[in-house]
Amino acid sequence: MADTLGMAAQIASNALRFSWYSGINWLMSREAQRLGPRPRYRPERPVPSEAELMADLRALFLADASAVRDGLYPPAEPAGSLGRHMRDLRAMFADLPATVERRTQADTASAAAAADANGLETLFYGAAGPMRRAGLKPIAAFMRGKDQRDVALLDVACGTGRFLREVRLAYPALRAKGLDLSQAYLDEARRHLQGLRPVELVCANAEQIPFPDASQDIVTAIFLYHELPGDVRRRVTAEIARVLKPGGLFVLIDSLQMGDRPGWDGLLEAFPVRFHEPYFAHYATDDLDAMLSEAGLEPQETSQAFLSKVMVAPKRGAN
Length: 319
Ligand SMILES: C[S@@+](CC[C@H](N)C(=O)[O-])C[C@H]1O[C@@H](n2cnc3c(N)ncnc32)[C@H](O)[C@@H]1O
Prior knowledge:
This protein is of the alpha/beta class. It contains 13 helices and seven strands.
């Protein structure tokens, strides 16, 4: 039965998150500008108008709510206490001088560590959740007719566990695991996953995934690929293909690439200049379809979700 109430609740929840994170975005940029003015960068390529961006954001929120209505995944959880949000907000502002310092010194390691879940949410106006949840749609199609208890899912570069929590809420009995290079992020992931059925969290490099060949039914990698140099991107993809069972599903979510939406290319041009992302420009023009195919995966469909895209590529061979 269509869950119309769930759909309405999802729209309300996304609207609330949008207002909250837009406010923080505005305050943070004002404060960052005061601490260390940013040089103006005018991209040569076209950029969308604010109205176009907001229309696309609304379309993302509507698609998210429609997926809830259609039963593809459960509604988002309540926003949590105002006290916790205020604590997170204070922590973000306390870290801002260090962030500005890192921006000017281009210190990659600590800048990456600082790009925590709240930072991502703020950057995307609260849309990081719906963009990640877009990855649950191909998983729902893959799961049809399967017993969750027989399905193993690995979230590569799970970070602070935001996607794993969504997976757990949708599939409580799935054999879910997360892997990340950063123990600090995994500690936060453990905290974030509290109260749900345990998820195995492993600290490891995705270039050498510590799981046997053909051991996973589903592998996901979300907002990882743009952070990797081209050769590492290929090694990680080869590892993902190795641990997937034939017919197993790879779901890749990351930024749009150049040409995906030609009128938006200027945003992709400006991003690595405004935020220190040394491999983003390479990522933005990398031939991901060819890379996936070379690794033995079969790119099937790509859909766009606001500033991100979702690529679905099963491993070649029988299921
Ligand atoms: C932008 S965060 C995205 C995290 C998470 N997937 C999400 O959606 O929030 C990128 C993550 O990739 C992890 N990472 C980067 N290189 C890695 C590698 N070689 N192996 C495993 N994790 C890696 C970082 O520690 C970080 O948690």
